[in-house]
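subagent[fold] <- orchestrator: predict structure for attached chain, return tokens only, no commentary.
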Amino acid sequence: MQLLYPKLATRTFQMLRCQDLGPSVGMLLESDYSVTCHEGLHDQFVSLAVLSILGYLIGVPLATFVVLWRNRERLHMKDVESRFGDLYRPYEDRWAFWEVVLMLQKCMLTGAMCAIAPGSPLQLFIAMGICAMYLLLLTFARPYKGLLEDQLAFMTSLVLTVSLCLGFALNTDAVDPEERV
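subagent[fold] -> orchestrator:
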């Protein structure tokens, strides 16, 4: 389920992404130009997207949190560890819920990169803000049991943040809006 989470978040937000192709064509779903936005089939897609957001994108982190919270006093018992250990084993005991933070960060990043003003500086700015907040939280928390894992998570997040900063700089440096990457 953890591996599917970012992909499903991307697909869910793509159902909400329409592109205006002018007055003669109208608004079409960007992932399938045969679907006209805000009518017929697209309304069904939006309903499914809302269900996916509630049931999966919010439901999975919430269910993970509830399972870990209910078992917080028994996390080191064999039966709990064998069932749910992959959710909390890599993290220090006080940060056993870190997997929930990771899922929410992935969801927000895929949402920002997918649904918010595609190709615009605003999209990169919001994604950069999400990465910077996660980087600060990661620096404060140092949630992993091993120092090497904390350092690797920090470097990975830092590289992603810097990459988004460079993308933002390239995107805003273009003189003509048509030249934007």
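orchestrator: received. Logging for downstream: The chain has a mean pLDDT of 87. Strands lie at 18-20, 27-29, 32-36.
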